[in-house]
Amino acid sequence: MARVPTGRDGGELVERVVEINRVAKVVKGGRRFSFTALVVVGDEVDQVGIGYGKAREVPVAIQKAVEDAKKNMFKVPKHHNTITHEVLGVFGAGRVMLKPASAGTGVIAGAGVRAVLELAGIKDVLAKSLGTSNPINLCRAAETALRSLRRPEDVAKLRGKRVRDILPVAARAATEAPAEDATLEAEAPEAPAEPVEVA
Fold first, then answer.
1. d(CA 104, CA 40)
2. DSSP class of residue 8?
3. How far apart are CA 90 and CA 79, in angstroms?
């Protein structure tokens, strides 16, 4: 289930419903049911937000969650299509470890964390859940991990080093691989054509 609401800057945002849960409240006359919705909103470039909404009806709960997610959007530091460095996010009992991956790896993650990473525009990453399987805590832990990422330019400036010396091996390989392949192709000699026998 994905709709396309409009963001604050006028750009298009994609929303993804991670979980809808039915909650019962016991009252004198019986039970009252309401619904909670966990929604991830992002522009699939570098902005993402997570929202949580509760209402008596599912569409209203989703709408509240989308509004909450829009208020809590943030930018994610990236290096090409992966994250800048390995990071561990913790929220409650949820622990999510994110690792940079080389180009073509894809998003290796579970449902809730996958939604957060994909809508943040990350295409190559390895993720592992180390704690609870509660989707709310997992999404919040992934959000904590992404918020704690630092840009390589900032770290290089603090340490007085070059950006390529700061990047992890996987990210460096993703940057240098296309250039090396092009050089090897240019240097490789052409194979001589095999003679064709005519009967």
1. 24
2. T
3. 23
Q: What's the pLDDT at 66?
A: 94
CA distance linking residue 173 with residue 149, whole number of Å: 20
* H or E stretch covering 146: helix 135-147
The DSSP result for 154-165, as a single string, is HHHHHHT--HHH
Q: Which residue has 């963001």 as its token pair?
A: 7
pTM of the model: 0.73
Output the DSSP codes for 61-72: HHHHHHHHHHHT
Rounded Cα distance between 97 and 184, Å, is 35
CA-CA distances (angstroms) from residue 40 to 70, 75, 105? 9, 14, 23
In the prediction, which pLDDT does 142 show?
92
| Side-by-side strand order, sheet with 14-27 | 14-27, 30-42, 47-55, 74-75
| CB 23, CB 54: distance < 8 Å | yes
Give the residue, 184 or 136, on which the prediction is more confident: 136
DSSP-assigned letters across all residues of 78-128: EETTEESS-EEEEETTEEEEEEE--TT--EE--HHHHHHHHHTT--SEEEE
